[in-house]
Design goal:
This protein is an alpha/beta fold. Helix content is about 35%, strand content about 15%. The protein has 2 domains: about 190 residues, Glycogen Phosphorylase B (Rossmann fold); about 160 residues, Glycogen Phosphorylase B (Rossmann fold, 3-Layer(aba) Sandwich), CATH 3.40.50. Bound molecules: uridine-5'-diphosphate.
Length: about 350
């Protein structure tokens, strides 16, 4: 298959601003290439793919980023800035896709979904968030009546945000296992990884660390400075150890030393890449039973699930974390979330989309 991928219009690939989509795109490219498909990626200037993805053709577009939907009001109108990066990526993508089999859009925005109804090229959408916008929700609903297969989701619980979709396509996610080294460090520190923004609930993990009189190692882009400093001010100095935003290789080396990853989503997390990355290193995860994490973590086997916002229960699970066998964590990823498994699911889905256009 010849597949054209449209990246996120928020930050270049490698900046961290695009969140989990950056890694998802790279994993998908790896998996598709290993299955023998040809891949072209349309992405913002300065984007980088994994070195092992050198066979994919990367096309750069310059322009203004979109504003992320999770930081707008649910009922906000869709807005397109002057010199729009998203519009530029679509223009280029549609042009290249004339000679391809399908365009796969990975940006969560209104314009690419609207295009679906207005061009003859098959456009598939990998939806990376729960419902964060009424205009997008309504548009998906409209497109779905004409093209019921064109949307795929990372988890069932994410897809539940779009209840009009009868049998949603759920594709999970994929991770390049060679990129993560198993570590058996049962005495390591507490870890937290993510964009530092309110929907990620960092404050609850800091609470747990503080109760245990420990430090919390925090990796990720600080997206909301005010939010970050407010949390920092609420706890004794040094409770948070800011580790910065690292490349996957550096991140996994450091993350693998943790005895547990705390994951504290305050929104319907579509999937939660960082959970699987921790598991791949052998690090068990304690998360709230909210969104994707509740489908990934096997309670009592690869970590623990606490009721949403129940910090006390999260704390009690940290105290028994050594009961989790780190090898089981890695095994789950090998069996369920490799790039090959992921790419196969995507290819099956894309074939269904292409068939709708025949
Ligand atoms: N990440 C990273 N380096 C860091 C911290 C985070 O590359 O130092 C990446 C991580 O690999 C993951 C992404 O940031 O792919 C966060 O994705 P997730 O699905 O957990 O949440 P999202 O940001 O999409 O809501």
């Amino acid at each position: 298959m010849r597949i054209v991928l449209i990246s996120t219009p928020i930050g270049f690939l490698g900046s961290g601003k695009g969140g989990g989509v950056e890694l998802t795109l790279n994993s998908l490219v790896s998996g598709l290439l290993s299955l023998g498909h040809s891949v072209e990626v349309i992405a913002p200037k300065n984007s980088k793919l994994y070195e092992s993805n050198e066979k994919a053709i990367l096309h750069f577009v310059e322009g203004e980023d979109q504003v992320s939907w999770q930081h707008q009001n649910y009922n906000s109108p869709a807005s397109i800035p002057d010199n729009s990066l998203l519009a530029g990526m679509l223009e280029k993508g549609l042009d290249i896709a004339k000679k391809a089999d399908i365009l796969l859009n990975m940006s969560y925005d209104w314009l690419p979904i609207w295009m679906t109804l207005n061009v003859d090229i098959p456009i598939a959408h990998l939806i990376s968030m729960g419902s964060e916008s009424s205009v997008i929700f309504n548009l998906i609903s409209k497109v779905y009546t004409k093209y019921p297969h064109n949307f795929a989701f990372h988890s069932k619980i994410q897809a539940n945000d779009y209840p009009f979709i009868k049998e949603p396509t759920i594709i999970g996610n994929g991770f390049k296992l060679d990129n993560y080294i198993f570590q058996d460090s049962i005495k390591g520190p507490l870890g937290w990884v993510g964009r530092v923004a309110p929907e990620k609930g960092l404050e609850d993990a800091v609470y747990v660390a503080n109760e245990l009189e420990e430090k919390l190692n925090v990796w990720g882009v600080i997206e909301d400075e005010n939010y970050a400093s407010k949390i920092e001010r609420s706890y004794p100095r040094g409770t948070i150890d800011w580790m910065g935003f690292l490349s996957t290789d550096e991140l996994q080396k450091q993350l693998g030393k943790c005895r547990v990853l705390l994951n504290t989503p305050k929104w319907n997390e579509a999937y939660g890449n960082v959970i699987v990355e921790a598991l791949a290193c052998g690090v068990p995860v304690i998360a709230y039973k909210r969104g994707g994490p509740s489908e990934i973590i096997q309670h009592g086997k690869t970590g623990y699930l606490a009721d949403p916002d129940d910090k006390e229960t999260m704390l009690s699970y940290v105290e028994i974390i050594e009961k989790i066998k780190r090898k089981k964590c890695r095994e789950w990823v090998e069996k369920n979330a490799s790039t090959e498994i992921f790419a196969n699911k995507v290819v099956n889905w894309l074939n269904k989309v292409i068939n709708e256009y025949k």
